[in-house]
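<purpose> Linking amino acid order to shape
<body> The protein record starts here
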Amino acid sequence: MPPNAIPMAPSNGYVLYDGNCGICSNLAARMRGTLERHGFALARLQDGWVAERTGIATDVLVKEFRVLTSDGEVRSAGDAYRYIFRRLPWAWPIYAVAVTPGLKQIFDATYRLVADNRHHISRACRLDAPAG
């Protein structure tokens, strides 16, 4: 597919990850099969069609993990994870915890801490993003 071609949306949408982040790329590779079985496709936030479809500049896109739902809604950060967890039968208990008042704020703060430090963590753990 050409770099800016916009693919058809899968039933639950796209999981959009930072392709320049080792943690993000490794997690996406490990979860690809599970996510695809449950109606998701994966794409790098840096793919040209992502900025076009979301209307968000790439330099802003890469600051957050995102899901582009099949109806065109963009969910970010903790909300993106909650969207995914709710659609994976085995992850429903995680979803329940992640929406519980008080625990939701802890979940979101933990996401923010890891997201803000993901490139440092990737380097420390020697998790290199794939070339290209």
User: Anything to note?
Assistant: The mean pLDDT is 87.
